[in-house]
Amino acid sequence: MSGRRLTQTLRYSAMFPEDLQYFCCPRTQERLKVHTVTQQGEDGEILEGELVSEGSGNRYRITNGIPRFVEDTEYNKTWDYKWTAIDRGKGLNYRIIDKSDPAYKIHDIFDRNGHGGEAFRYAAGRLVLDIGCGVGQYTVKLLRDYGPAKVVAVDLTGGVDIFRKIVFERFPAYRKKIVFVQANVFAMPFRPQTFDYVFSLGVLHHTGRTREAILAAADLVKEGGQMNVWVYAPAIIHYDVREQNRPKHYTLITFIPFQLYSIWVLAQITLFRRLPHRWVVRILAAFSSQLWYSLCKLPVVGIAFRAFFGTVMHPDRDYRFINNYDGWCNSWADTWSEQELFPTIKQAGLVIRGISSWPTGLWCVKQPEFYRR
Question: Mind listing the domains of the chain with CATH numbers?
Answer without folding.
Answer: 3-67 (2.20.25), 74-234+338-372 (3.40.50.150), 248-329 (no CATH)
